[in-house]
Amino acid sequence: MLSLEELAYYITYKKAYIEEQFHIQNKERQDVLFKYNTAQNILASQKTSRTITLKSRQQGISTFWLAQALAEAITVPNTVCVFISYEDLITQRLFYRVKYMFDHLPDPKPKAEHYSAYEITFPAHGSSLYIGTARASIFGKGDTISMAIISELPSWPDERSRSIFHDLSQAVPKNGQIHIEATPEGRSGLFYELFQDGKQGGIYKPFFFPWWLTEEYTLPRGSPLALEYSRYNMVYTIYENSLIEKFQLTEDQIRWRRLKLEEAKPLALSNTPEELFQHQYPEYEETCWLITGGAVFNQEALRLQLTQCKPVIRQDNLIKYWKLPRGSSNYIIGVDTASGSEKGDYSAAVVIDSINCEQVASIHVRIPVDIFARRVYELHKQYNNALIVPEIPGHGQSVIDFLIQMGCSNIYTVNKKPGFVSSVSTRKPMIDKTSSYLNSNALIINDPELIEEAIAFKWVNDRPEAPYGKHDDYLFALMLAIAVRDSPLVNTQSYPAENYLTGVFSSV
């Protein structure tokens, strides 16, 4: 039994305790001390009591949480840790790992009792660790759960995943822990929803671990496993060069990536080898979710856009800026307006530079229409009296009315009526023009959120739409701006006297 001093040490320095005491079998089946890898170190140093992790295959995240649960059960009295997987075979393997860690602890170690093939209890201080499947009906023997670890949630039985997750989460008190981890699936379901909510500041802190954090995912020069054309000298694609530049990837990592893409080719049916690779070995959290149905836009072109996104240089008054206005440029603002309701669609405005079609500023919010109109007018004044392209019918008409009241005259007009009429006859040409710009690399998108909407946008019965429960407002604001880029109206307004070098803007 641990002394109070030892217990205090282990609780405070859990990482040191695990790395000094816990043994695992590595991928070569050798017995080694459990030393955290890069992804595990990030989790250990940044985790909170509620986390959700989107990961690549075989990054050791499940093993990390198993070790955390075992350490908790050993060192903290009256602890109940529950690890839930999705099928019996996986559960058995996970329990074997826990048992291996415990059996190889140095003596003296706490006395344990094995009541089943899935549970270890420590009767001296009333703690236990249980590993079960989502197909079972009992978790933690009805106890209050101190730590719940939920593995591969997208693979849980669809008809029961939400109710099981609800029951588990309600069994964990506010001072307990809930940790969710999985590789990605489609753009729907509980795991996807929780991860996206976490990105928006929800309950679960999101972690994303791309494949290159895993040290073994490399192939050295001359390796017999490497593809013949990659075995020695490498000629990189545009996308590979972008990955190398943005993430400092090595030749050996790109060589490994090419091998995995080749292995995916025989498996590519409704999805391309690149999509299958991104699913198993994510590079961006926006591109790893499998798409069901036909994607509207070229996915490879969108992935390339992600590698080229510039950082936000300024953010205030609900507006994000990537580039300040230049006196030599004309600008266009595409505007898609929603009601402003708390759980409805977003209102979006995208400013593009008409010269190189680059996104330079944006609004993407849920706010009342009159406030949104003021922010759009602010952008209009800042960006050289930019041409505003509001979508109508709908709330866009209200934005037009507010803009006219504020003295704005540079509004896109057809047949003396301001606004861009949205219909089947105008939407498809707008989509085709945006697609052409993407395919020819004539468009620069700087916000990953906008790119994510474009990636998810798909054809359903010859109708373009966002996935169920998701949004396309941001995307349509961009497409509205692109649709009128060649209009003579873009070049009709004079420039204001704002100092774009210092970022001193006129205010509304």
Q: Can you describe this structure in just a few lines?
A:
The chain is of the alpha/beta class and 508 residues long. It has 3 domains: 4-209, P-loop containing nucleotide triphosphate hydrolases (Rossmann fold); 228-290, no CATH class; 314-491, 2-Layer Sandwich (Nucleotidyltransferase, domain 5).
Note down, in words, how this protein is organized:
The chain is an alpha/beta fold. It has three domains: 4-209, Rossmann fold (3-Layer(aba) Sandwich), CATH 3.40.50.300; 228-290, no CATH class; 314-491, Nucleotidyltransferase, domain 5 (2-Layer Sandwich). It is 35% helix and 19% strand. It contains 16 helices and 22 strands. The protein has helices at 4-12, 14-21, 38-46, 61-75, 88-103, 161-170, 190-199, 238-247, 251-264, 273-280, 299-307, 369-382, 396-405, 424-439, 448-456, 473-483, and strands at residues 23-25, 31-33, 50-55, 80-85, 113-116, 119-122, 127-133, 147-151, 177-182, 205-209, 294-295, 314-316, 319-321, 331-336, 347-353, 358-365, 387-392, 413-414, 417-418, 420-421, 458-460, 463-465. A hairpin with a 4-residue loop joins strand 15 (347-353) and strand 16. Helix 1 crosses helix 2, helix 4 crosses helix 5 and helix 14 crosses helix 16 (473-483). The termini are far apart.
Task: Based on the model shown, name its key terms.
16 helices; 3 domains; Rossmann fold; 22 strands; disordered C terminus; eight-stranded mixed sheet
List the helices and strands and how they pair.
Elements (H helix, E strand, L loop, with lengths): L3 H9 L1 H8 L1 E3 L5 E3 L4 H9 L3 E6 L5 H15 L4 E6 L2 H16 L9 E4 L2 E4 L4 E7 L13 E5 L9 H10 L6 E6 L7 H10 L5 E5 L28 H10 L3 H14 L8 H8 L13 E2 L3 H9 L6 E3 L2 E3 L9 E6 L10 E7 L4 E8 L3 H14 L4 E6 L3 H10 L7 E2 L2 E2 L1 E2 L2 H16 L8 H9 L1 E3 L2 E3 L7 H11 L25
Parallel strand pairs: 3-9, 3-10, 4-7, 4-8, 8-9, 14-17, 17-20
Antiparallel strand pairs: 1-2, 5-6, 6-7, 11-21, 12-13, 13-16, 14-15, 15-16, 18-19, 21-22
